[in-house]
Design brief:
Distance between the termini: 46 Å
Helix content: 40-55%
Structural class: alpha/beta
Strand content: 15-25%
Shape: elongated
Radius of gyration: 22 Å
Order of helices and strands: EEHHEEHHHEEHEHEHHEEHEHEH
Length: 332
């Protein structure tokens, strides 16, 4: 743990905060190679950070210095709990810290043990934003979850993680992962090869997430046995999916009829997650997206949660969030 001391700077409105860390061996990964994590925090929050031994001094505007302190404490706590701290983790914690309506939330959500986490064979996943926290809670609590937002916010990744966790624990017997195979109507005939060859390129993101959660041989064995099924949405017609965790990705590219068909596949003792970005509709008539239609109809129904992500929740490279803002902001 870290001890915190506060010393007021001479200039009004500014502060000098001092932290003393009890485990110096964690400071290398906390600061990053050539202090790159400290430099990132300084640049984003407009503060100056000086480190000597196991002491760190932060100087700057009082609010910014306090936020920098919470970021460092949160990252240190992650290391102390055995989690890695990389550039993405730093950006994620900073993303929470720079939001003025989240005073104190950084320490509550990150420095203390997380309220929610997902354990799979290969990793333990903790939330990297406040909306991810709400999403992971909904995944554990609700029968059906709609996750809306831009690329890079973890919608599909966290859904696959929760699905794998429940498959491992025996809460469900199988995973059903689906998405529209072709954005504008699933026309596969022009592609070479058999049906698997035709649809696999469109389902590759789901495979990638699975391989990140389970050893390769387990993924292949479970696919061969039918415990894990990855298929385009057209393959869902006429089925009732019991004892399953069902995920629909890229749901904005379904029509209302396709969405109704998919949602009504829901069976006993099952969970369903529907992920999509309402701003990336590739249908000939974007106003006829099945995702928007379903959310309008189903919001407020018991056991159905709707979680909305924004560019502030992007956990990929920070540039992705700025690109999303540029395309979706005023004048877009």
């Amino acid at each position: 743990m870290a001890r915190r001391d506060l010393a007021a700077a001479n200039e009004p409105g500014r502060a000098r905060l001092e932290l003393e860390f009890e485990q110096p061996y964690l400071l290398g990964p906390l600061f990053g190679d050539y202090d790159r994590h400290l430099i990132t925090i300084e640049t984003r929050l407009g503060v100056h950070i000086a480190a000597r031994g196991n002491r760190v001094q932060i100087e700057g505007e009082a609010d910014s210095a306090a936020r920098a302190r919470e970021v460092l404490l949160g990252l240190y706590a992650r290391l102390d709990q055995g989690h890695d701290v990389d550039a993405e983790a730093v950006e994620a914690v900073l993303g929470m810290a720079v939001q003025p309506n989240l005073e104190g939330i950084v320490h509550d959500e990150v420095a203390s043990p997380p309220r929610v986490m997902i354990r799979t064979r290969k990793k333990t996943i903790v939330p990297r934003s406040t909306v991810q926290t709400a999403y992971m809670e909904a995944l554990a609590r609700d029968d059906m979850v709609f996750a809306l937002g831009p690329a890079g916010t973890g919608k599909t990744y966290l859904a696959v993680a929760q699905a794998v966790s429940q498959l491992i624990s025996g809460s469900v017997d199988r995973l059903i992962l689906s998405r529209p195979a072709v954005e504008a109507g699933e026309r596969l005939g022009f592609l070479p090869g058999d049906m698997k060859d035709k649809v696999d390129p469109y389902l590759r993101p789901l495979y990638d997430a699975l391989y990140d959660m389970l050893p390769t041989e387990q993924v292949e064995r479970r696919i061969a046995s039918g415990e894990i099924e990855i298929a385009p949405i057209a393959f869902m017609r006429g089925r009732t999916l019991n004892d399953a965790f069902i995920i629909l990705d890229e749901a904005q590219n379904t029509t209302p009829l396709q969405m109704k068909m998919f949602l009504t596949r829901f069976g006993m003792r099952s969970r369903m997650v529907v992920c999509g970005d309402p701003h990336q509709v590739d249908l000939p008539d974007p106003s006829r997206s099945g995702l928007a239609d379903a959310v309008t109809r189903l919001t407020g129904i018991k056991s159905i949660a709707v979680v909305r992500f924004t560019a502030a929740d992007v956990v990929r490279h920070p540039l992705v969030g700025r690109i999303v803002d540029a395309y979706e902001g005023p004048g877009a």
